[in-house]
Write a structure and sequence with these properties.
Layout (H helix, E strand, L loop, with lengths): L10 E6 L6 H14 L4 E5 H7 L8 H20 L3 E5 L5 H11 L2 E6 L3 H7 L4 H6 L21 E3 L6 H14 L5 H4 L9
Parallel strand pairs: 1-3, 1-4, 2-3, 4-5
Helix pairs in contact: 1-7, 3-4
Length: 194
């Protein structure tokens, strides 16, 4: 008799916010914490996905929505197979994020609400300055809109917290929604073994 182990319940943790808000930093810090709890984890960073899965797309609303839906589709495939998926993508339009939420089902939205002026101050590539000077069209938050979530599971303003504090708030939201349990917390963080 072939007995399969019970499938782990997956979830997508969807970080959204302006460029420079701290989405990727938080996502990259969350991934090893979940892995240490014995979870299978995949990180889908918006920049990496745009380079590989969405190459050739521009920055019109239609292209941005296509990019977000592609991320959502991959996240849904992984989530339904018990993976904890972490996305870090600006995903500026509420409708596209709602499509992902409806498609994935197990979806925890994290709004990194860091204000525009703080994000612009962190911009080592000078993209905000170029956008403000009119050199970059369709730059989210400057000359293209960002539609903030209306009811995110977690809101993080990275001005007033450490990365670890932000990660702890996301982990608390996952616990509250049943994606992490007491059994998960008993995993040895150094070995990943219970």
């Amino acid at each position: 008799m072939n007995v399969q182990p019970p499938r782990q319940r997956g979830v997508t943790v969807w970080f959204t916010g302006l460029s420079g808000a701290g989405k990727s930093t938080l996502a990259e810090a969350l991934a090893p914490r979940l892995a240490a709890l014995g979870k299978r984890v995949e990180l889908l960073d918006g920049d990496a996905v745009r380079t590989h899965l969405s190459k050739g797309l521009g920055f019109s609303r239609e292209d941005r929505d296509t990019n977000v839906r592609r991320i959502g589709w991959v996240a849904q495939l992984l989530t339904r197979n018990g993976v904890f998926v972490i996305t870090a993508a600006i995903s500026p339009y509420r409708e596209a994020r709602d499509w992902c939420r409806d498609t994935i089902k197990d979806f925890v939205e994290v709004y990194v609400s860091t204000p525009l002026e703080v994000c612009a101050g962190r911009d080592v590539k000078g993209l905000y300055a170029r956008a403000l000077a009119g050199e970059i069209p369709h730059f989210t938050g400057v000359n293209d809109p960002y539609e903030a979530p209306t009811d995110p599971a977690v809101t993080l303003d990275t001005r007033g917290m450490t990365v670890d504090e932000g990660v702890e708030r996301v982990l608390a939201a996952l616990r509250a929604r049943g994606y992490l349990t007491g059994a998960d917390e008993s995993v040895d963080a150094s070995t990943g073994v219970k």
